[in-house]
Amino acid sequence: MKTVVLTKNAPQPIGPYSQAVKANGVMFVSGQIPLDASGNLVAGGVEEQTRQVLDNLKTVVEAGGGTLDGVVKTTIFLKSMDDFPKVNAIYGTYFKADPPARSTIQVARLPRDVLVEIEAVALETGC
To answer: Cβ distance 120 to 74 under 8 Å?
Structure first.
């Protein structure tokens, strides 16, 4: 059985998908882009965008009953791998101890022409 996670404290989906879906104690969080909860694109460069993306990710995970400590896998999509050191430094402030497994991929284009998108797999608290 699956349960859809939806919170108004993070940007609403911009297509036919859920912010996250839980199944058997595992939460699959859709890719988060740097929109605020009202759906406005965050101004600034990759640092500001990365912080917003990770704040959104945290908000959705918590709405689904988890924490960032329960994130077991992330995938980072970057418009440019030249931004990797900046994104990596900010990412490290969100995942300090026992960070999740991770893949980082450069892509040709992201929704709304953003610079970064991050998706995650997390465990519900207590799993």
So the answer is: yes
CB 80 within 8 A of CB 115: yes
Give the gyration radius of the chain's Cα atoms: 14
Handedness of CA 37, 66, 25, 93 (dihedral sign): positive
Task: Give the span between the Cα atoms of 34 and 116, in whole angstroms.
Answer: 8
Q: Which two tokens stand for residue 75?
A: 């995938």
pLDDT in tens, 82-101: 999 999 999 999 999 999 99
User: What CA–CA distance (Å, rounded) separates 66 from 97?
Assistant: 16
pTM of the model: 0.96
Q: What are phi and psi of 117, to 5 degrees?
A: -140, 140
> pLDDT tens for residues 13-34?
989 999 999 999 999 999 999 9
